[in-house]
Amino acid sequence: MKNYDIYKATDVISGYKCRPGVYSMNGASAGSHGVNFTVHSSNATACSVVLFKRGETEPFVEIPIPDSYRIGDTWSIIVFDIDIYEVEYCFRLSGEYAPEKGMLFNSETNILDPYARAVTGQSVWGKRSGAQDCYHGRICTNLFDWGNFEKININFSDLIIYELHVRGFTKSLTSGVKNPGTFNGVVEKIPYLKKLGVNAIELMPIFEFDELYEEREYNGKKLLNYWGYNTTCFFAPNTSYTSGIEYNHEGDELKNLIKTCNENGILVFLDVVFNHTSEGNEDGSIFSFKGLDNNVYYMLTPEGKYVNFSGCGNTMNCNHPVVQQFIIDCLRYWVIEYRVDGFRFDLASILGRSEDGTPLENPPLLKMIAFDPILSGVKLIAEAWDAGGLYQVGSFPSWNRWAEWNGRFRDDLRCFLKGDNGMAWAAVQRITGSSDLYPYERWHNASVNFLTCHDGFTMYDLYSYNVKHNLENGWNNTDGDNSNTSWNCGVEGETDNKSVNDLRIRMVKNAFATLLCSRGAAMFYAGDEFCNTQFGNNNAYCQDNEISWLDWTRLKKYKEVHDFVSDLIAFRKKHACVRHATNPSSIGFPDISVHNTWAWNNEFNDHDHVIGVMFAGTDKKGREDTVFIGINAYWEKCPVQMPDLPSGYSWNIDFYTDVPHKKATDYNKMVDRQLNKITLAPRSVVVASLKINK
Question: Among the options 383, 529, 591, 625, which is catalytic?
């Protein structure tokens, strides 16, 4: 707590001793005998602090902040003798109400502090405490003991990112955890994650959001804002993800998750949504930014209407200086107070739009984030597009700091692996680091390669469904992307046909082998490693049920796939040449070489479906490190030739997707091989590494 004992009260307002506050401390900060409240607004004419008893919807006192307590656009006040454990707060601001000018002030509207460290009424998932859209802040203390915490560092190209939804990851009873659907539930699964081999988890939104926002019922099921891409407060963790009540020390359970992950060699990234808020459009609620400075925080038309580059009703005015500072403050807070290792920015192209919505060549916000001294050690990952049609994969402003979700990797390799014509060269480009998108000097930190994520089909569904099956979302199957580039292997949905099911498993293994043998960071969606399904739903944003929750019984059913993925991850970690350029090969091979069915022939036509890629170099001890991946995406057998090796070396077949995978399987005995020429089974992948002959 701050020591406000050195300050003496100068006034009594509404029965409370008060004095001007500390203007540089945004939000509510507890001291030993008082609370500092600071808020700023460019257009408000007056401001009050409103206090509530815990759980009450009507305030017990309103404390007007004198105009003499205002410096510039900032009001700050210390209120003494507040019991922070029994009090909740918000602000009320006065000013002009003129929607056509973007002014929405109302002195009777309770405004949630954008800098609130905790939001009340949200602690129990699916239950509302108090009136709708009546959010209060809670005054927090920071007593979490980080001990001798020491942040780990993992090079970007070495990352294997596991995207997960905190609730859905363990909510099913099949997860077997004591605290399902919570941060502690994820902690209980850390041994699983560590054994699997991933070294980073990317948490879908954990900032406070209202899961009851736009709740509705369809076919007897309650549909919620399950994913959480509608932020209520950017400085507050989602308290419904905790296994216990954390009054006034909200965030401890999340901090423990981050601390425990780091102790086990796993980084924690947050999926952050600065492109819009949950206040919606003209028909939406007024509970925070709208009532604080509507025409500052949001992009508006000249008529005062909301611009909608986010597809969610409004768009944050990210390159207004006030909003820039807010976002920087927020990111710094999560790095300093929560020791977060990185951020994935949802619809990040919006962060590069000017105040009138046009794309900027050198967006000041993105540059500020890239060069901020507090943020210098964290990973920055952009979803380099938005809902307004701006697509910047390969061209997102980077300053050699920003990486991108490589949507081209997903799209091109999905097409190639299912057998589309004319995709061989594009597949080669993606596997070898997307040099057509990123200059060579950025290969090591530019591309997050992925085939699946929360948005779209799971890996299993990618090869079980040709079309989306989103009827359960209640929009007559009109929501969700229609361009899935998926293939059902001959039957739509679940089937007892063994040949179809075997093919699906092979296709999943092909996808993982390709992903994990590609240059750049790798990412996949939680449960893909054991063929989790969403039953063909490619937009399960509202499904807080078995559609979205991981079914852990599939871990046993698809143990082969799980072990295949785990062993591939270990293989990737063992062979640095796959992840990034190393010291030159001792036998004269180039860093990267491309092959068709014949070694060293890198010409492809529209009907080619077979590619070979070789990565070569030496490890830190000077030993030769060479890996070859051969992919046959054709529906018939096809040959692939691995390069000849000098005397004393030979190719070892480490993985072959046409046969069942078991630990310590000797694939050399299972491939159709004549010297360095392999006849690949239809739709199969082989991975080989160089070995020294004894």
Answer: 383
